[in-house]
Design goal:
InterPro entries: TPR-like_helical_dom_sf. The protein is an alpha+beta fold. The chain contains 24 helices and 15 strands. The two termini are 83 Å apart.
């Protein structure tokens, strides 16, 4: 009898389980599954989404588990994602409240995943018994707009260090000495070494801009009271200078020289300077003179006080005559090679025809800027790298390789390697902002947006300025889009060089940051810079789609596929346009 009872209980349990699971599967038809975002989107090389699952009230029975299994199916393949288990014991109020769970999912993006479907299946189980629901699609495909980012590179050249502007070099002629109370330039002064020095200078016909002549006088009465003495002494030197120019046939060159006469009248500075170098009296005795001057009073009063000092006669004899002078300072144009000469010489250096010492390092660096040919620039900078350990030569050679990679994308990988080798040498010598900026470009060429961002940020933080800063901001903005830092990318692109690629990336960052109208504006600015930039028209179509502007979608897609017919296929599978794909205008735009 007992065996019969046990058999009945086992049968009853199995029968109950057998009835419960089908009921749970049937009730699962009323479950609510919401995927956000839908369609899925890729950002930062990752597809991430949330799924909220709500089960019907009374669906969970005691001792049961309902598991929502999630898959991403693409073609004949699929990714199995984490399950969402609903254990009855975890939801004691499931008879009156619907069990709810929101779970986050993510998986690395691959291009093969672009077209696919998020599917779920429910599994009701109790003990070893289980029953599955049919597969249910809950989200379709992946929006890949963030992948439209254009990698941007920029060649940051360091300063050449050469002053290619006119430079004036001072030539100082020793002072001409005049007799007390007189302003006549004596023959003995003209025939002296300084006179011969000035004569030789004038005879050489150096390119001269100014001749400044300062006339002075000594402090005693005969000198002091003659207000014309200082200017007349300066004028005497000018007269001699002009006579010499006439003798050496300066002709029109004389008119280009500006004579500046500076008479110094009743000024103690020259006396103080001469006294400080005079060794005929002690420092204490010198202090007596300075104390009198510093006490103030008229020039005449000070001179009277001087005469009372025991060293006055000695100072009058040794120091005063040196104050009856005319000082001559001439500014001549520094002799430099012309741009044409440096271009020829630098080319000869690279060809081994002349010694590298023919040009200085700075002249070599400057010569490289004079040619538009990247090949010639590379040769000159390579020669410059052999003139000592100079970081800027290695940096600029690396920058040329980057510029060549921009012009020749098919050989970009090899050029990026060559650039990196030079930039690593430069960085060891000096981790300058320009070096960091170029490393950012090399990183982008090699597909490492994170390293590009780090180097670009360091370059800007180190004080990169001007065109180089604008250029590296474009690299940084592109890297920030890859990193899904869209607001930061908008800021970087706003400070970037004003070209079509940067404007496109700015528009893309704005769209990804949900600023669709400004994104549309930026795309239009990009196409204004480059009317053949098909991807910018495509971006404008995406912005129009998000704004619900069907006409904008059609017109911009028409322009995009006209400039690049390969975009036709991209648009047909792009979920950005799913709301418009069935319209005749959309289909016509892609014909």
């Amino acid at each position: 009898m007992r065996k019969v009872v046990y058999s009945f209980l086992i049968f009853a349990v199995l029968t109950l389980a057998g009835c419960t699971l089908p009921k749970m599967v049937k009730m699962s038809k009323d479950q609510q599954l919401t995927v956000t975002p839908n369609p899925l989107e890729v950002h930062k090389d990752t597809v991430a989404f949330d799924m909220a699952a709500n089960l019907p009230v009374k669906m969970l029975k005691k001792g049961t588990v309902y598991t929502v299994n999630t898959f991403y199916k693409y073609g004949t393949n699929e990714l199995a994602l984490d399950p969402i288990p609903f254990k009855a014991e975890d939801y004691p109020n499931s008879k009156t409240e619907p069990p709810r769970v929101t779970k986050s999912f993510s998986f690395p993006y691959q291009p093969a995943y672009k077209t696919g479907t998020v599917e779920v299946e429910g599994v009701a189980s109790k003990g070893e018994k289980a029953k599955k629901t049919p597969r249910l699609p809950v989200a379709t495909g992946i929006i890949t707009t963030s992948k439209l980012v254009k990698p941007v590179y920029f060649a940051a050249f360091a300063e050449h260090g050469y002053n290619n502007q006119e430079e004036l070099v001072p030539v100082v002629i020793p002072d001409f000495i005049f007799e007390q109370g007189r302003s006549v330039l004596r023959p003995t002064e003209i025939k002296s070494t300084k006179g011969k020095q000035l004569d030789a200078f004038i005879a050489s016909k150096n390119a001269t801009r100014t001749v400044t002549i300062t006339g002075t006088h000594s402090p005693e009465g005969a000198e002091r009271i003659n207000a014309k003495l200082s200017p007349d002494r300066a004028a005497a030197i000018e007269k001699f200078y002009r006579a010499e120019m006439k003798k050496y046939d300066y002709k029109g060159k004389a008119d280009s020289i500006n004579f500046i006469l500076k008479p110094v009248i009743q000024d103690w500075n020259e006396f103080k300077n001469s006294l400080s170098t005079y060794e005929g009296i002690t420092s204490e005795e010198k202090a007596e003179y300075l104390n009198i001057i510093n006490a103030g009073g008229s020039f005449e009063d000070v001179e009277k006080q001087f005469k009372k000092l025991k060293t006055y006669k000695k100072v009058f004899k040794d120091v005063y005559p040196k104050l009856r002078t005319a000082k001559t300072e001439i500014l001549v144009v520094k002799d430099k090679k012309t741009d044409a000469e440096m271009s020829v010489l630098s080319k000869q250096v690279t060809q081994g025809a002349i010694s590298a010492d023919t040009l200085s390092f700075e002249e070599m660096m400057y010569a490289a800027t004079l040619t538009p040919s990247l090949e010639e620039k590379a040769a000159i900078y390579e020669a410059a790298t052999k003139k000592g350990s100079n970081w800027n030569a290695h940096n600029n050679l690396g920058a040329v390789y980057i510029a060549q990679a921009i012009e020749n994308p098919s050989n970009a990988a090899a050029l990026a390697d060559k650039a990196q080798a030079q930039l690593e040498i430069a960085a060891k010598l000096n981790e300058a902002p320009e070096v960091l900026a170029n490393l950012a470009s090399v990183n982008m060429m090699k597909g490492n947006a994170y390293a590009a961002y780090n180097n670009a940020t360091k370059a800007l933080g180190a004080g990169l300025k001007g065109d180089n800063a604008a250029g590296v901001n474009g690299v940084k903005g592109a890297a920030e889009i890859v990193k899904a830092q869209y607001a930061a990318a908008v800021s970087s692109e706003s400070a970037a060089a004003d070209n079509a690629d940067n404007l496109f990336n700015k528009g893309l960052a704005q769209v990804l940051n949900k600023d669709y109208q400004n994104g549309l504006t930026s795309f239009k600015e990009a196409t204004a810079k480059n009317s053949n930039l098909a991807i910018a028209y495509y971006g404008a179509a995406v912005a129009s789609a998000r704004l619900g502007n069907a006409d904008g979608v059609v017109s911009n897609l028409s322009s995009a596929v006209k400039a690049d017919p390969s975009l036709k296929e991209a648009a047909l599978s792009d979920l950005e346009f799913s709301k418009f794909a069935a319209t005749e205008a959309f289909r016509n735009a892609l014909k």
